[in-house]
Amino acid sequence: MVTVEYFMSPGSPWSFMGHQRFIEIVNKFNVNVNMYPVNYGEIFPLSGGVPVSKRPIQRQKIRLQELKRWGDFLKINLNLEPKYFPSKSLLPSLIIIASKRKNINQAFNLANNIMNALWVENLNIDDEETLVNILKKMDLDANEILNYAKSEECEEEMKSGTKFAIEKNVFGAPTYIVNDQIYWGQDRLDFVERHLSNLLKP
């Protein structure tokens, strides 16, 4: 079966805007997905990337325009400058990893709900209480997942996922890899869909 490697960050608006569309595509083709919440703070310096606040003002301005365009196009009530951005993204990433490791079949929904909390609800996703509330609303065992998220196993998985991303030449979020083809950005999802369609033609 075809597998898509999906590298994302819960602190990325682009990961958020592509997330549900990506899941719809992979469900359509019934392919496997490996979702990796990774440490872009480690990846950026290796690839010449810099945090938003350190980018030239021209790039910061066009970023906000692009966010507005895509939010309107996708009909997402996106908060362009949320109160708690940038997010460290560490604990929310570990929460997602913990849910995956415990074989909770809502990992993708959980990731979406965490990103929605930051980019639509204007909440602090680095705050434990915020994350616990998200888990409880999904009828998940919040204490169990939160405690496991702080474990050495989850921390090691995030480190190994980040290392894997670097080996695969990932430099931005989101990134989708199909076979040897790298698709960076939610605006490349049409190409991801075409690639999968070509691979899975009868």
Question: Can you walk through the features of this model?
Answer:
The chain is of the alpha+beta class. It has a single domain, classed as 3-Layer(aba) Sandwich (Glutaredoxin). It is built from 9 helices and 4 strands; from the N terminus they run βαβαααααααββα. A 4-stranded mixed beta sheet has the order 2-1-3-4, sandwiched between helices. Helix 1 links the parallel strand 1 (3-8) and strand 2 (32-37). Helix 4 (90-101) crosses helix 8. The longest helix is centred in the first third of the chain and has 17 residues, at 13-29. It is globular.
CA-CA gap between termini = 14 Å
Strand pairing plus helix content: what structural class? alpha+beta
User: Which bin fits the share of residues in helices?
Assistant: 55-70%
Please indicate the count of domains: 1
For the sheet with most strands, the description reads: 4 strands, mixed
The level-1 CATH class: Alpha Beta
Radius of gyration: 16 Å
Can you count the beta strands? 4
- CATH homologous superfamily placement: Glutaredoxin
Q: Quickly give the CATH architecture.
A: 3-Layer(aba) Sandwich
CATH topology: Glutaredoxin
The sequence of SSEs as H and E is EHEHHHHHHHEEH
- What percentage of the residues does DSSP assign to strands (E)? 5-15%
Give the mean pLDDT.
Answer: 95
* Low-pLDDT runs: none
Strand line-up across the major sheet: 2-1-3-4
Q: Give the helix tally.
A: 9
Which of globular, elongated, flat, extended, rod-shaped describes the shape? globular
